[in-house]
Amino acid sequence: MIENFSVKEVMTSFMVLFAVIDIIGSIPVIVGLKKKFGRIEAEKTTLVAGAIMIAFLFIGDKILKFIGVDVNSFAIAGAFVIFIIAVEMILGIEINKPGKATSASIVPIAFPLIAGAGSLTTILSLRSGFHDINIILGIILNIMLIYVVLRSANWLEEKLGDGTLQVLQKIFGIILLAISIKLFTVNFAQLIQSINF
């Protein structure tokens, strides 16, 4: 596993997941939940979110095999999900309307805000092109950053301001859009090749 370590793959995995999770863009949501429900347990939240993502990395493909879906098809579907998330970020619209939060413990921060449909789909999509060790390290780096954000959400919102948060959201939205197109083209080409041969 160590021989498959790649700094480039780790950083790409980190950046893709960072853009999908959009923890910086979620600061206003986190602050709102903190005001509504009181203290957010940063340690518990990040550990649960990390465990969900790493577990899905290993059992996600088994679930796919069980329901008869190949990784390339799932990655293409994931590319569409990432595309929609990117469009939401860039245009500032809400296509996917999350359910109303009733608790700020594990739900809705750990799941689905951090380890949601977008991040889980992205993890399996990344697995079609990257080694597991690099994706795991990318997840761990994100979890560390998420922990810092959860611990200092109020301070970050005050320092960054709404304008800066919106700019960051749009920048990562454009990056995510490009990534979704790449994921689609690479996996679509592989799917066509597997059908032809």
A few lines on this structure:
With 197 residues, the protein is an all-alpha fold. It has 8 helices and no strands.
Count of helical regions:
8
Number of strands: 0
Beta fraction: under 5%
Structural class: mainly alpha
Q: Which segments are poorly predicted (pLDDT under 50) over 5 or more consecutive residues?
A: none
Largest sheet: none
Report mean pLDDT, rounded to a whole number: 83
- Measured between the Cα atoms of the first and last residue, the distance is 30 Å
Q: Mind telling me the C-alpha Rg? A: 17 Å
Q: Shape, please?
A: globular
SSE order, one letter for each helix or strand = HHHHHHHH
Helix content: over 70%
Describe the structure.
It is a single chain. With 197 residues, the chain is mostly helical. It contains eight helices and no strands.
List keywords for this structure.
197 residues; mainly alpha
Architecture blueprint of SSEs:
Layout: H1 7-21, H2 27-37, H3 42-67, H4 71-91, H5 106-114, H6 117-127, H7 132-151, H8 153-196
Helix pairs in contact: 1-6, 1-7, 2-8, 3-5, 3-6, 3-7, 4-6, 4-8
